[in-house]
Structures are given as C-alpha cells and as structure tokens.
Write a structure and sequence with these properties.
This protein is an alpha+beta fold and 368 residues long. Helices cover 60% and strands 15% of the residues. It contains eleven helices and seven strands. Strands 1, 2, 3, 4, 5, 6 and 7 form a seven-stranded antiparallel sheet that branches. Helix 1 packs antiparallel against helix 2, helix 1 packs parallel to helix 4 and helix 2 packs parallel to helix 9. It is elongated and about 90 Å long.
Length: 368
C-alpha cells in the first residue's frame, strides 16, 4: 500500500504542478502583454499590478489544475496498465479515490488560505508601491460602502432609532461633512430632524452651522432652532464609521464576516458582502469537486486511454462553462434575485449530486 500511495501521489502531484504552472504562465503572459500595450501605464506599474493580482489568478488555476490532474492520472494509470495491476492486488477504485481526494483536500486548503488571506493581503499593498495604482487598473478597484458612497454621493447609516445621511468622513480629524440626522419615536414616526455642515468628535459630537427641527411628531408646530455650534445627539461612533468605510477587498475572511455582521446590525444590507466570503468557501469546495470529477475512469480500467490534448481541451470547455454559470448565479445573488446561499453553492450542489449518482452507477456496473 505504501508503494501504491507513492505511485499515486507522484503521478497526481506531478500533473498538478505541470498543469497549474502552465495555466498560470499563460494567464500571466496574457495579462503582461495586454498591460504593456496600454499607453497610460508604465512597465513597472504593469509588473506591480500583475504581482498583486497573482493570488486571484491562482484561485482560478488551482481548481482547473485539480480536474486536469485527476484526468491525467487516471488516463496514465490506464495507458500503462498499472491500474489493472493495482486492482489485481485487491485494491478497489474507492481506495485510490480516497488517496487522491486527500491530495485534493490539501489543494483546497491552499485555495482557502489564498482566497481568505493572501489575496486581501496583496490588495492591501496596492497603494504602497505606486500611488493611485487602483485608479489605473480596474482589477484593483475598491469595493464596499466606500465605493457605494462615491457612486451615489451620500452614505446612509441606521443606528438604533436614528437614520444618518452624510457625504464624507475624515478619520484623522474625526469629522463628518454634510450630515443629516433623522430620529424616529417608538412608533417609527419622525420626531427630530437635524442638519449640520459638519460634526466632529472630541469626547462628544459637536456640530457647526446647525439647523435642528424637533417635535415633528407632535400636534403643535415643529420647533426650529438655528445655531453656529451645538452638541449633537449622534449615536454612531467613529469606530463604526471607520468599519463602514473599509475597502472590503483588503479584508481577510474573518474581518469580512465581522464587517458584514456589523453592517446588518446597523440596518444596512450585507448580502453583497456575504456572497463574497461565501464564494471563498465555494471556491474551496470547487477544488474537491473537480478532483473527484476526473476520477470516473478508475471504474473502467480496460477502456482505451485518451490523448492529453483531448483531456486539456475538454477540461477548458467544462471550466469555462462552469465559471460562466457560477458568475451568473453570483450576480443573481448580489441583486437579490435568488438566495445568497443558493447563488454561491447551487452549481456545487448539482455537481455533487451528479457525482454521487455516477458513483452509485459505476459501483453497480463493476459488481454486476
């Protein structure tokens, strides 16, 4: 069994190394050629951009490499008649699948660490090498409430019974500009309306150029008060604001989950960001599923082997269709058209069901 494990491990890992390095090389060369042809960026900026997005490249390469490795390993064992010899010793296809699945698990773990930690870390460096590098490459653009604010002009936050709208927040000065605070009563009826040119924090919130309208929910006329400076009842902390305005592309998966939960506790929708960390988990599962998908030939040791070119071509077609369908489902989830869990794990559930049915069918045909 030890010799068998060495044969399988050597065959699968060799195929994984060759396929992953070849795919990564092709993608990197394509990106570099595309970048060098642009006139608004320097070669140095192109190289830095490629270095920063390389973890993202690996996230696409590794599942594909797992599929190709399993197909090539099965094909080579059949072509050299090693599979028949292995089965003659009493080893079953399931024994080989378990050993290869363990190898795929190690790749899946690497996939999780890259997507959950290495990719955010690399994107966190984007402005440390070249200033405003993210403005020159779309693949480095910020995401999160910061980009939503830039797009829509204003940011909305709900905290307890207050709804807050503001234009910008300066963390170093702890100052918020163009603030409007709506306060509702226990029946969710608007009772106070406060508008400030800016409010700053120094032990407490204090506003400048204020207009405060109170007692709106009463039968009498509202009370309007205009003041140059005054204390402001503002229930959002500076820590809340800093977390709201983080660029989520630079958050590791643990911080991303905390960021999403913080948004939802504040009354903001976190579904778009929840899908991001769920997709990290689903890409990890992809490595496991793709590893198993290429092992169907183990149940047919006497079939003719397939050419390596046909394996590579078939794998590319399958993977392209897979990414297209998965990308479409993710966009459906972000737009709230389908459940977030279904959008991130729907295609994985279908493939897992298909694998289970094929396993049952192949097992019956082997012993019939």
């Amino acid at each position: 069994m030890i010799i068998l494990e060495k044969i399988i491990r050597k065959e699968w890992m060799k195929s994984l190394l060759i396929s992953s390095s070849s795919l990564a090389f092709l993608i990197v060369i394509g990106n570099l050629i595309s970048g060098f042809m642009r006139s608004n960026v320097s070669p140095y900026e192109v190289l830095i951009n490629q270095m920063l997005i390389f973890p993202s490249t690996l996230l696409k390469v590794l599942p594909t490499a797992c599929l190709i490795s399993s197909l090539v390993t099965s094909n080579n064992l059949i072509k050299t008649n090693q599979l028949v010899a292995i089965y003659s010793t009493g080893v079953s296809p399931n024994d080989i699948i378990k050993k290869i699945f363990l190898l795929g698990t190690s790749v899946a773990l690497a996939q999780f660490l890259i997507g959950g930690y290495l990719k955010p870390f690399s994107l966190n460096l984007k402005n440390k090498f070249v200033t405003n590098l993210d403005e020159k490459f779309r693949n480095l653009e910020a995401d999160g409430l910061l980009s939503a604010k830039i797009t829509n002009g204003k940011m909305w936050i709900k905290k307890n019974n207050q709804f807050v709208k503001y234009q910008s927040f300066n963390p170093s000065e702890q100052k918020i500009n163009n603030v409007t605070i709506y306060t509702v009563n226990s029946k969710s009826v608007l009772k106070d309306f406060h508008k400030s040119k800016s409010i700053s924090f120094n032990k407490s919130w204090r506003g400048e150029d204020n207009i405060n309208t109170s007692s709106i929910d009463k039968k009498n006329s509202p009370l309007i008060k205009i003041s140059k400076t005054t204390d402001v009842s503002f229930k959002v902390t500076t820590d809340n604001l800093k977390k709201f305005e983080q660029d989520i592309t630079t958050l590791d998966i643990r911080k991303l989950i905390a960021y999403t939960n913080n948004l939802e506790r504040s009354g903001l929708s976190g579904i778009k960001y929840k899908i991001i960390y769920l997709s990290i988990i689903s890409s990890t599962i992809n490595c496991l599923i793709f590893t198993l998908l290429g092992l169907g030939a183990l149940y047919s040791p006497n079939k003719r082997s397939t050419s390596t070119g046909l394996i590579a071509g078939g794998s590319f077609v399958f993977v392209i269709v897979f990414w297209l369908v998965e990308g479409y489902l993710l966009e459906m989830g972000k737009s709230l058209k389908i459940n977030p869990v279904l959008s991130t794990f729907g295609i994985q559930i279908l493939l897992s069901g298909g694998l289970l049915l094929k396993l049952i069918k192949d097992k019956k045909s082997r012993f019939s």
